[in-house]
Amino acid sequence: MRWYLDGLARRIAAYPGVTFVHMTGHLDGSGLTGRLHRNNEIVREHCRRTGGWLYDFADIESYDPDGGEYLSRGGTDACTYAGGRNWAQEWQAAHARGRDWYECEAAHSEPLNANRKAFAAWALFAAIAAARAGG
Fold first, then answer.
1. Residue 91: how many other CB atoms lie within 10 Å
2. Separation of alpha carbons 54 and 120, rounded Å
3. Of all residues in the chain, what percent carry a pLDDT higher than 70?
4. CA 52, CA 55: separation in Å to the nearest integer?
5. Rounded to 5 degrees, what are φ and ψ at 10?
6. Could you tell me if 88 and 103 are in contact, meaning their C-beta atoms sit under 8 angstroms apart?
7. Cβ of 73: how many Cβ atoms within 10 Å?
8. Which residues pair with 101 in a beta bridge?
9. What value does the mean pLDDT of the chain take?
10. In this structure, how many other beta carbons lie within 10 angstroms of the beta carbon of residue 130?
11. Which of 6, 17, 75, 107 is paired with 28 by a 20 to 30 Å CA distance?
């Protein structure tokens, strides 16, 4: 994990006018005790400590829009979890397409997951722009 943080720190130092964004790894089904989760926690703590920007793939993939949690149930980036179930497909089936979620291509995942990642990216970009503008 140090290679990731040290490598990004070198790039941040080399390009002081550029805003860099850290990111967590996609869920892999290993849950709360897996190496991925431990590494993601290291990245989150680093960003808290240094004030770094974070795009948290794992956090987005861990929750449905109603707050249901799937990391502890073996969630993956494809939105599958314990027993071969799929939280995004379940949520999409219970909610209106075109109002609650939008159909789109989503490599190795579900449209709802892609929607949430796109919304999070826009919010992140807006926050970075506001911070750079002094707001």
1. 19
2. 11
3. 99
4. 10
5. -65, -40
6. no
7. 17
8. 97
9. 95
10. 10
11. 6
Q: Is 46 helix (H, G, I), strand (E, B) or coil?
A: helix
CB neighbour burial string for 38-56, b if at least 16 within 10 angstroms, e if fewer: eebeebbebbeeeebebeb
Q: Which two tokens stand for residue 110?
A: 């579900």
Which residue do the tokens 């939105």 mark? 79
CA triplet 110, 114, 116: central angle to 5 degrees? 120
User: Where are the strands (E) in the chain, listed by range?
Assistant: 21-23, 53-55, 80-81, 85-86
Distance CA 128, CA 75 (A): 29
63 forms beta bridges with 69
Q: Of the given ranges (21-25, 79-83, 84-88, 131-135), which has the lowest mean pLDDT?
A: 131-135
